[in-house]
Amino acid sequence: MRLGRQAEVDAGAMRHSHAELLLGDDGWVEHREHGVTYCFDATKVMFSAGNISERGWTGTIAAQGEVVVDLYCGIGYYSLPLLVNAGVAHVHACEMNPDSITALRAGLEINGVDKRCTIHVGDNQETAPALAGIADRVLLGILPSSEASWPLAVRCLKPDGGVLHVHMNVVDNNPSDIDAWAEQTLSTFNTLAQMENRQWELEIIEIRKVKWYAPHIRHCVLILKAQPKE
Predict the structure, then answer these.
(1) What does pTM read for this prediction?
(2) CA 52, 54, 60, 66 torsion: positive or negative?
(3) Would you tell me which of 4, 20, 120, 155 could form a disulfide with 127, CB atoms 3.0–4.6 Å apart?
(4) How many angstroms from the chain centroid is the CA of residue 26?
(5) Domain ranges of the chain
């Protein structure tokens, strides 16, 4: 038996858990949902119960045979559902937190998908440039904002485009706030694509409202599709 006390997750890039173990020998757990087993030390890395619907939905995407770049992989929150349930061919997982990498390796192995994932250890600003032009799909799953890696995401997509999953905490005070954010984000990605000489048309496929992160702050995911201009 183990008992812990949850605390606020660290706001830094490593997203350390500050959970305190009150009873038991260690914080290592295995958690299963939607047919995927996640392994992690709850005292060292975060795991958001509020993202369960997004993790489940990610596994239902029609992505069979795709190559995916996950720029903020963590313990495999979204990469594991893609590998286990969506049938992607390969995931390139970028992660800098050693505790998350340990958990990711365990999760890949226990789910039997370790041969279909390459882990790129370190800051994605340093590791992801080597992944330019290889991805059918790029995941940008970090909060409060993934904007620092938007240029990288554009470069990682194949020359003929692909799909972007853009996570963000969005102020939601008025009915138009989220739509306005989505349109502004679309405009920014169009500009980034032009800067990279990508002759793309980008369109909004879906705006996903994952959870309330704080009062008037909503965790959203914008799904964008890039394809060649006609």
Answers:
(1) 0.90
(2) negative
(3) 120
(4) 27
(5) 47-228
